[in-house]
Design brief:
Largest sheet: none
Number of strands: 0
Distance between the termini: 53 Å
Shape: elongated
Structural class: mainly alpha
Number of domains: 1
Order of helices and strands: HHH
Length: 72
């Protein structure tokens, strides 16, 4: 089965997204396994946890930004 590489909508954001992915994986206790085996050996469940937590954090960040009063 072929793997596809998703591209960021803003290419300049790709390095930050990669750092963020590893940060989330570390918080979930998966960093050692990734360092030893790589992303290709991770289970779908583990990858889903990382992706789900990334989305959850990005939504929380966006909601906090939207809730801040804008200065005019």
């Amino acid at each position: 089965m072929g793997r596809r590489k998703k591209k960021a909508m803003i290419p300049e954001a790709q390095p930050a997204l990669e750092r963020f992915k590893y940060e989330v994986a570390e918080d979930l206790g998966l960093a050692d396994k990734i360092a030893q085996q790589g992303w290709g050996e991770m289970t779908s469940r583990e990858c889903g946890k990382v992706g789900g937590n990334m989305v959850r954090r990005m939504i929380k960040y966006s909601e906090n930004k939207l809730a801040q009063p804008t200065e005019q």
